[in-house]
Each structure stands twice: as structure tokens, then as C-alpha cells.
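Retro notes, item 3 of 5
We never archived the inputs for the beta-D-galactopyranose complex last cycle. Fixing that now. Sequence and ligand:
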Amino acid sequence: MPTLIRLLPLILAIVAPARSAPTITPPPAVLAATPPMGWNSWNWFNRKVTDADIRQAADIIVSSGMREAGYLYVNIDDAWEGTRDAHGVLRANEKFPDMKALADYVHSKGLKLGLYSSPGALTCAKFPGSYGHEQQDADLYAAWGIDFLKYDLCGFRTIMTEAAPNDKREQLRLMRVAYEKMHQALLQAGRPVVYSLCQYGYDAVWQWAPEVGAHLWRTGDDINATFASIALIARGQAGLAKYSGPGHWNDPDMLEVGNGKLTLDENRTHMALWAMLAAPLLAGNNLTQLTPEITAILTDRDIIAIDQDPLGKQADRIFAEGPIEIWSRPLANGDVALAVVNFGQDTFLRGISLHLQAAGAGPGWHAYDIWGKKNLGPIDDHYAFTLKRHETLVLRLTRS
Ligand code: GAL
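Structure as it came back at the time:
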């Protein structure tokens, strides 16, 4: 390499004007540039998760093709925590005999390892939280090689109400301070960690979460494996698009694709809506029982391309009438993604307007039907489609 090119960064550093330090250090730009993808133990294993389950999950993420599709984070949710030693250092419980070795194993598969904690003294499942031990815990995570932290309000609710019993504003301020405290501890620990806030959307968290270093934040309550829960959460995301973007994402909660008794259409609708919402894609199913059908949904390249689109613009709802809703989002190459959802119980037989103009497209644009895997050619507003109960038509529209 010519000397001048090698020296260029040094020369630029010398001639660059000095900048004053920002008050809050932003998270490194490369982290969560697109919504994080991976798997989390809670939805399936709940408190029972073990070291062996995590290793097996990592193995299957590789063998099923999920890693190639983008699923990188293997996240252990609540119930890994043990007790603190005499110096306050937390140990994992007996289900996780050697967290460092587990992290090494997950990393050896080309994946990343995530953990869960709470700003409270106790987590939701009543294991020790990080209250009063924030830096110690952040240092421990860094020593273990942890890459993702979900930080769940839970036990901190008691602390904030007891600290300011009659002052709601003060309670909310204390909550933010607690989230900022762990953010600073993670920075101090020096290992890049994707920071995930879980406080169920309190206090319009989307308005301030990036200021406390969050890469993602839950926008509402816990999901469960029913279509009612999925629909309620998805519809509740209307109006939140402007708060998310590269490095900072609204999180409607982990995926239930493959769980419960969801039908094929319901699983596809769930996946499509989360992709439209630029949501983190954290699968929550039992990977040892992956069926070809569920693998196909989770690894669908066209759907994932929407979720992971580098423009990072979350979908807005552009039409809602009864059970039918249309959501659209612009994509980095000028295309537009459109999802027409039937939240209702009955088959919808009539074509309705696609509202192409509101979506930023227009007549004559070409449509690709993502679940149908077919080019529909040029379309206009009055595309005649049928949607079965809980089915979603997802179109990628390209200017002709
Ligand atoms: C809840 C959280 C769930 C899960 C659980 C663990 O508060 O929303 O996603 O993490 O705690 O106890």
C-alpha cells in the first residue's frame, strides 16, 4: 500500500478540528444498523431454559439456515441468574455452569450471545436484578463475552414508587436514570452491546429511549401465541414509525411464529407485519421442532429483505376499514412494500383499492407477491384480491 494512503487516517486526525464531547455518548453506529435478528428463550422455554437448550438452539440456527438468513443473536431471557458472592459478583445458576464457555461456544458458531437483567433488585421471575450492581454486572457481561442485553423494568417499579410515592413525574425520571445508568455501565465496560429496553412502552419510551442508549425498546405488553395478541400489538404500532430508524428500533416484542396453534396464514401475517414494522426479529419458538413450513416463513428472503431494508423506515398504516388494513413502507432502492391484512374472521372476497398513491406508488407499478412468489405485472388501484381469514397479501412494488 502506498505510504500516503496508509498515513491518510493519521493526517486526517491531525488536521480535523477538535470537537467538544457530546453529553451522551451515542451507541456505536454499526450496532443494530438494521433491526436485530436472532432467537430468545422466553416464549418457548420460559424459566426452564438451560445451557444445553442454548447450545442446541445455536446448533439449529446454523443447521436450519437461520444464521444464513440473518438470525445472529441467541438470547437467554430471565432465569439464568444465581446468587451474588461476598463481593457482590453475580453467578449464573446451576442451569448455566459456565457462562463464558457457553459464550465461546455460541461465538464459535458465528453467532452472538445475549442476556437479560433488570434495573430492579429482582427480575420479573424473581431472580437477582442489577440494582446497585450495574457496573459490576456490565463488567461481568463483558468478561463473559455478552453481545446483547435486555433490561426489563420489573422490580424497579417498586423502587421508583417507594422513592417518590406521590410524584409520578419523579418516578418516571428515576426510571430513565436507571436505564441511563446501565447504558453508561455498558459503555464503561467497553464491549459493544445491543441494549434492549423492556418497560412495556411506559411514558412514550420511543420519545426518549435513544437518549439512554437504547437500540430497541418494547412498545407494549408481552406477546402471546394467539392471533388476538399479535393483531392487537401490530395495530397498536400505528403512528410510531417516525421514532424508529437505523440504530434505534421500536420493538413490538419477540416472534411467536411456530408457537401455539397459529395457522399458516396467521404465522405468515405475524412475520409480514413484524417485517413491515422494521421490528427486531427474535424468533421465540422451539427450534428442535422446526417444521419445513415454519423454517420457510422465518427464513423467507423477500420478507427479511423488507425488515432489514437499509433505509430503516417503519411502515405506516395508510388505510383501515373494519378488519382490512393496508400498511406501507418505502424501501432503500425506491421500491415500496405494501401489506394488505385481513384481521377478520371471514374471507374477504372483494377487491378494494390498494391506495397506491398513499403508499408512494402509482398505477402501472409492477408488483411482486411475496408469499405467492409470483410477479403480478403492472397493477392499478383496483387489484382484485381475495384474502382468507387472518391472511396478509404482501407486495413489493417497483416503478415501471
Ligand atoms: C417480562 C418481559 C418478558 C420476559 C419476562 C421474563 O416482563 O416482558 O418478555 O422477559 O419478563 O421474566
